[in-house]
């Protein structure tokens, strides 16, 4: 089920330099933990978000292929970095720089996922907003796989990995954090 809350992109809240939003999920992406900053930014209480799918805070401006890439990386036991736009319970938008990792048991099997989110760079948000709008158009016209293919072609042409692209955008942002 997708978010149906109304939103106004201008109605935004911003992470501070010391904000650290964390959450954990099971293998299906159902939330099993969220810290106090997760409560503050998502606008949902623990009672409301525990055991709900993480698309609870999905923003309609995020292309589907971005999450396809996330789940493809996790299936390969790789960590994933991304600028993610979220929509909270009150309809407020907030951008984060997320790092999502698998957790293992003693047999080396993946048992859960963990996400750590920090204040994103201004450059990263502005660049990704443009990329995501383009991807949304592609998806509308040709479907999600065409969006994934567009990203893979872009990376190939620019001889850069997804991780490098995201981490560079976060670190290069000389003008500082997004506000
Ligand atoms: C640990 C973890 C954290 C996640 N955090 C978010 C998040 O903050 N916002 C979000 O929209 N999706 C997040 N997702 C992805 C969602 O599970 C889901 O794939 C996404 O919201 C797209 O939902 P949909 O397939 O219903 O469109 C997270 C997934 C994992 C495994």
From TrEMBL:
Q: Which domain of life is it from?
A: Bacteria
Keyword hit for Chaperone? no
Q: Which InterPro entries match?
A: PAS, PAS-like_dom_sf, PAS_fold_3
Q: Which residues form the PAS fold-3 domain?
A: 32-116
Provide this UniProt record's keywords sorted from A to Z: Kinase, Transferase
GO-annotated molecular function = kinase activity
Instruction: From the Swiss-Prot or TrEMBL record, give the protein name.
Output: Histidine kinase
Upper classification of the organism: Bacteria, Pseudomonadati, Campylobacterota, Epsilonproteobacteria, Campylobacterales
């Amino acid at each position: 089920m997708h978010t149906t809350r109304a939103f106004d992109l201008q109605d935004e809240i911003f992470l501070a330099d010391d904000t650290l939003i964390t959450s954990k999920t099971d293998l299906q992406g159902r939330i099993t933990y969220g810290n106090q900053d997760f409560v503050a930014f998502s606008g949902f209480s623990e009672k409301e978000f525990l055991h709900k799918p993480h698309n609870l805070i999905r923003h309609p401006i995020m292309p589907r292929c971005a999450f396809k890439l996330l789940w493809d990386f996790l299936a390969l036991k790789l960590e994933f970095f991304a600028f993610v736009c979220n929509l909270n319970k009150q309809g407020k938008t907030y951008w984060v720089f997320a790092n999502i990792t698998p957790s293992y048991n003693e047999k080396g099997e993946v048992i859960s996922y963990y996400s750590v989110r920090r204040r994103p760079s201004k450059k990263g948000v502005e660049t990704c907003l443009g990329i995501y709008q383009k991807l949304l158009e592609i998806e509308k016209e040709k479907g999600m796989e065409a969006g994934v293919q567009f990203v893979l072609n872009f990376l190939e042409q620019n001889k850069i990995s997804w991780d490098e692209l995201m981490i560079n955008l976060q670190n290069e942002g000389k003008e500082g954090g997004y506000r």
